């Protein structure tokens, strides 16, 4: 037994199984990292060329306002995908709760969503290369649709087979697996620089520079899904873990117990709404940065696009550290104050970013400028802070439901995040259009993170006094 297992009637996390479930997160973050790193710049480039009749190289070297003027269009298209996700995530969550098949209730959605999204994904850069806006946007929509079919059931799989007191511990492990997936995409972006493609005349562009990352992401996503399917026997585990899941209900970290059929208590409902409200705000902030950081680096800092990928690696490493010790922090101060600490750390990072300006040192053959080193520190602080937030927030949501409603409550969690990601690209795009200033990005994000901190800290209540056992540093590697 692990040293904390006696606290909860002998419940103990199965680390090997949790790592294997993490392959679902591996595939999710792998695809999103490629999607978020490349697609907003694809859209910026193609619309700027269509609207102004200039090559991308000419736009890059010329009028920056023309690039800012199309960001609201980029935001609308990115938001339309998220709007579809906002509708579909709760639907697929509820459907998978009620699905019964020989391979389980989540696996049919995971396998179907993965295969279709993986086949469609490489067509996004292909249509972009041939200047086909309609084709590119349609394929982006198809990818998002089937990733929503995949995402909710994949995320719900962890709490399906993990007792409540152990879910924060498990969430840290599977998030580390997810960041490993994102790291694959990031490394590709360092060696296959999007700026090398964007900053040349149209006839000199090489399709393979932008196509290879999408193909590799598709292949690895399919492999990760089949590893998950081959190793996690959902139906068998549901039967084997029935007693453990029932025992876990007795140790839920909320004052009012939940039941399978009864309505939520008023206190639990208020707690859920407060968590989801704060989550909405921090995803508004975080997605704004994720959507526009590539354009911020290329068009504002005038730095190589590979700098964005290095930023992602720095943030990812800090996030892994955060996930590894978030449980230790939560053991000491509780999940609520762990999240509040993470949000306050992130606010500090974004305030620093508000004062970053382009360098005057030229480092590239295309006139690209040196990347501001301070941003690596900003990304490390932000990555660590948001790891504390993400490690504890999802377990707090599914703590408020019974085992029969995990998919539905997972849908609530993602409805909050996707609604934020529907609104924020459009809103910030309009802010760019009015302000004509890329510095609006960190200002916008820091304000939203601060409001999220206030909402979460002041309104999330109804938490029991005892602390929930979470992972302790390298204990996340397991003792089996």
Q: Can you describe what's shown?
A:
- The chain has 480 residues and is mainly alpha-helical.
- It is 74% helix and 0% strand.
- The protein has a single domain (14-477), classed as Growth Hormone, Chain: A.
- It has helices spanning 15-52, 56-61, 64-69, 71-98, 107-120, 123-129, 133-160, 167-191, 194-198, 207-231, 234-240, 242-249, 266-300, 306-353, 374-398, 406-435, 440-459.
- The termini are close together.
Topology at a glance:
Blueprint: H1 15-52, H2 56-61, H3 64-69, H4 71-98, H5 107-120, H6 123-129, H7 133-160, H8 167-191, H9 194-198, H10 207-231, H11 234-240, H12 242-249, H13 266-300, H14 306-353, H15 374-398, H16 406-435, H17 440-459
Key terms:
480 residues, disordered C terminus, globular, mainly alpha, single chain, disordered N terminus, Growth Hormone, Chain: A
């Amino acid at each position: 037994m692990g040293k904390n297992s006696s606290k909860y009637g002998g419940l103990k996390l199965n680390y090997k199984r949790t790592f294997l479930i993490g392959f679902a997160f591996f595939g999710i973050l792998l695809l999103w990292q490629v999607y978020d790193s490349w697609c907003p710049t694809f859209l910026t480039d193609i619309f700027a060329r269509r609207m102004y009749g200039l090559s991308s190289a000419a736009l890059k070297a010329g009028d920056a306002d023309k690039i800012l003027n199309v960001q609201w269009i980029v935001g609308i298209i990115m938001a339309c995908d998220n709007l579809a996700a906002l509708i579909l995530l709760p639907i697929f969550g509820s459907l998978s709760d009620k699905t019964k098949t020989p391979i389980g209730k989540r696996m049919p959605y995971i396998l179907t969503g993965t295969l279709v999204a993986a086949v469609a994904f490489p067509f996004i850069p292909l249509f972009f290369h041939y200047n086909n806006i309609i084709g590119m946007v349609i394929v982006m929509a198809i990818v998002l649709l089937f990733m929503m079919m995949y995402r909710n059931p994949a995320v719900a799989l962890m709490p399906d087979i993990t007792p409540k007191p152990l879910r924060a511990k498990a969430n840290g492990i599977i998030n580390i697996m997810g960041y490993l997936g994102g790291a694959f995409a990031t490394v590709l972006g360092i060696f296959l620089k999007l700026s090398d493609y964007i900053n040349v005349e149209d006839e000199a562009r090489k399709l393979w520079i932008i196509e290879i990352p999408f193909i590799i992401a598709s292949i690895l996503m399919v492999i990760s899904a089949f590893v998950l399917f081959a190793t996690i026997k959902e139906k068998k585990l549901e039967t084997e873990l029935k007693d453990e899941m029932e025992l876990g209900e007795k140790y839920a970290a909320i004052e009012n117990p939940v039941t399978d059929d009864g309505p939520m208590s008023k206190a639990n409902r208020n707690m859920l709404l407060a968590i989801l409200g704060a989550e909405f705000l921090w995803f508004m902030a975080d997605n704004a940065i994720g959507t526009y950081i590539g354009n911020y680096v290329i068009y504002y800092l005038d730095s190589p696009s590979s700098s964005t990928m290095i930023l992602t690696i720095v943030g990812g490493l800090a996030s892994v550290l955060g996930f590894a010790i978030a449980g230790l922090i939560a053991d000491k101060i509780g999940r609520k104050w762990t999240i509040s600490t993470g949000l306050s750390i992130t606010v500090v990072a974004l305030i620093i970013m508000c004062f970053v300006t382009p360098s005057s040192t030229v480092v590239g053959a295309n006139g690209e400028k040196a990347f501001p080193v301070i941003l690596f520190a900003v990304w490390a602080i932000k990555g660590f802070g948001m790891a504390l937030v993400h490690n504890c927030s999802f377990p707090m949501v599914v703590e408020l439901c019974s085992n029969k409603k995990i998919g539905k409550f997972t849908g609530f969690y993602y409805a909050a995040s996707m609604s934020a990601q529907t609104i924020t690209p459009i809103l910030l795009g309009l802010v760019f259009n009015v302000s004509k200033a890329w510095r609006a990005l960190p200002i916008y994000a820091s304000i939203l993170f601060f409001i999220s901190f206030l909402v979460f800290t002041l309104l999330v209540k109804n938490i029991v006094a005892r602390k929930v056992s979470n992972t302790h540093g390298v204990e996340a590697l397991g003792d089996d």
